[in-house]
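EI: anyone free to look at a 350-residue chain?
SC: sure, send it
EI:
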Amino acid sequence: MRNLLVVGAIPDHKHKLRYGGATVLMYNFLLFLESENINYRFAQTNKFSNLKTGEKRNTLNKIYFLLRFLILLPWCDTVMFNFSDNGVCSIFPFLASMAKFFKKKIVLRKFGGSFEIYYSKLPQSTQNKVLKSIKKCDLVLFETKAGIEHLKKLTDNQVQIEWFSNVRDKSNFHKNPKQIEKRLGFISEISDEKGIADLLQMAKFLAPEYQIDIYGYIKDEKYIDFDWSAHNVTYHGEIKSEKVPEVLQNLSLLLLTSYREGYPGIIIEAMSVGVPVLSTTVGGIPEMITDGIEGFLVSPGDVNSAVRKIRSLDPQIYERMCHNALDTFNKKFESRSTNTRILKLIKELK
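SC: here you go
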């Protein structure tokens, strides 16, 4: 591999509070490439946003990105596309055709864990177009093992497909496993899809023995003027990404009560600090957590099971879960080892 063109989105540092996990992973990989002195260029898909609102300027972004992509395409030998479901099913087919026309190696890195569902809802003509573009790839990197099995069936094993995990850097913060203060925390967007109603129901059963802290951007308007204290929880507002490990360190357990998820980075951040997680069995989460090992798994909406499992924690079980969470992070989700493996796969393309 001589010249690598990387395509994707990175965090908008002008609006630090709101950006997705895919942009964090993209930025993490670019920093890794620089640390390895890899000769690469970057075609950013989300460069421009409204300075006041943070909203993306979609038309301007498309124009800028396409021009940069076309200018850099002749220069490179390999193109690495980094997209979530929407990008794979919208712009990627066109870009893959362009790259193939110029006889470039094509790598697709698909973020998130919901591709099977997203793909199934597309019109048949769009499905055919997406599948055709994926078959043009020399290497496909998928974030969930369930997604890999689905894609292998779609492509009849004609494409090299490899698993990569959502990753984070090692944390400077570490939970003291001997401290179980019965302080629970939720860190995500505030919406019904994230199971906020279930969280409030849990608080009703657990109070006053347990404290529940909620952090995140309010997506559903009904929660804007919500009386959180009346439901035995404390809402702390949005939190900057660099503050998340410090907040996690002070929790006994991270709660994620979602009805829909992909491969949530907040779980990995919790494990990087050594904090166990109670989460629902949606998306790629069962690939991340084993019930009773790094935390607990419950079915979406099963408040009674969640409360029962939280109450089952004793100091011995808790200390073991903290150690397991940190150990799993180091083995599966630490960024440098995963990025090294991805780069090795790209270099080995023939």
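EI: The chain has a mean pLDDT of 93.
SC: 👍
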